[in-house]
């Protein structure tokens, strides 16, 4: 006689806050299909949440924008929450961010509104048991209707159950870990973004480049996961609009009004505006945590410098 199939257990969502999404490292090799990469906006904070729990690099987490998430655990497990500085409590008792936390069945987790930063990352030991397709990823892209818990691009909602495994008492009793203070990001520090100049930089006359690298810009309220729109000195562009071509992560395109847009994880796959260069992946982590109105400045670096920083990041978190 077949035993009845048991319902999965995990973390029950009591309140999802403003915007909570399942995210991992994003999709690889899908842009030729017209699909965006998606993935965690702040890879530094996301990767630390998984590392604190011993999870593999691409393990799915929750990306929580503007806080407000409330969960109830149905299992004994460990979680880690990194990223934005938010008030964090378990059963009403304050807990530390950037460290591993033990949960028992029935425990209530609450993230308040950010005091600094924008996005938080919640990882659970072993990760959430969700499908990773389309480039071996569960990255949620609401515009495309792909990824997420049900592979339909929907954000996490109240009432959802996020399946995860229960830990043994031995695993729960293992040493807790915390991120060294020197590796915790300061989301209130002045924002200086490293930029690699691109092949189309000759379309920008010297006065435009001087303005871009010596004047401050502000992040526009129109900013989202597709791109960070900036307000500041308008840049002149030489020549006509280009034939549409593929767009890389961090590309800085300048629209007809002369204002730069930094293209982010959920960007469109092609575009025809001239591109001054690209913000480096490590600088995009810092950008992902800044609110509209924040001041942004730029610093030119070599491709070699950017590659070294990315290699160091991947070797530390991924071992490759």
From TrEMBL:
The signal peptide, as residue positions, is none
What is this protein identified as? Carboxyltransferase domain-containing protein
Q: Outline the extent of the Carboxyltransferase domain.
A: 32-317
Q: Which domain of life is it from?
A: Bacteria
What InterPro entries does this protein's entry cite? CT_A_B, Cyclophilin-like_dom_sf, PxpC
Native organism: Marinospirillum insulare
**Which keywords appear in this protein's UniProt record, sorted alphabetically?**
ATP-binding, Hydrolase, Nucleotide-binding
């Amino acid at each position: 006689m077949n035993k009845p199939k048991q319902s999965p257990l995990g973390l029950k969502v009591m309140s999802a806050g403003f915007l909570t999404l399942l995210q991992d490292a994003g999709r690889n090799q899908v842009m030729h299909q017209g699909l965006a990469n998606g993935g965690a906006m702040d890879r530094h904070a996301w990767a630390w949440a998984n590392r604190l729990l011993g999870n593999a690099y691409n393990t799915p987490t929750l990306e929580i924008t503007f806080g407000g998430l409330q969960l109830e655990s149905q299992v004994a497990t460990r979680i880690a929450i990194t990223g934005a500085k938010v008030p964090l409590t378990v059963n009403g008792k304050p807990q530390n961010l950037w460290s591993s936390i033990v949960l028992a069945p029935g425990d209530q987790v609450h993230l308040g509104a950010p005091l600094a930063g924008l996005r938080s990352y919640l990882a659970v030991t072993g990760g959430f048991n969700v499908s990773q397709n389309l480039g071996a990823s569960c990255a949620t892209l609401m515009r495309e209707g792909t990824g997420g818990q049900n592979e339909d691009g929907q954000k996490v909602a109240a009432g959802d159950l996020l399946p995860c495994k229960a830990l043994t008492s031995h695993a729960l009793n293992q040493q807790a870990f915390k991120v060294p203070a020197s590796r915790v990001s300061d989301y209130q520090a002045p924002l200086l973004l490293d930029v690699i100049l691109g092949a189309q930089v000759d379309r920008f006359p010297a006065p435009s480049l001087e303005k871009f690298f010596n004047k401050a810009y502000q992040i526009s309220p129109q900013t989202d996961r597709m791109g960070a729109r900036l307000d500041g000195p308008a840049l002149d562009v030489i020549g006509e609009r280009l034939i549409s071509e593929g767009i890389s992560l961090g590309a800085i395109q300048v629209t007809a009004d002369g204002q730069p847009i930094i293209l982010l994880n959920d960007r469109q796959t092609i575009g025809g505006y001239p591109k001054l260069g690209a913000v480096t992946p490590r600088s995009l982590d810092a950008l992902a945590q800044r609110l509209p109105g924040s001041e942004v400045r730029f610093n030119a670096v070599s491709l070699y410098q950017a590659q070294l920083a990315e290699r160091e990041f991947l070797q530390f978190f991924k071992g490759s």
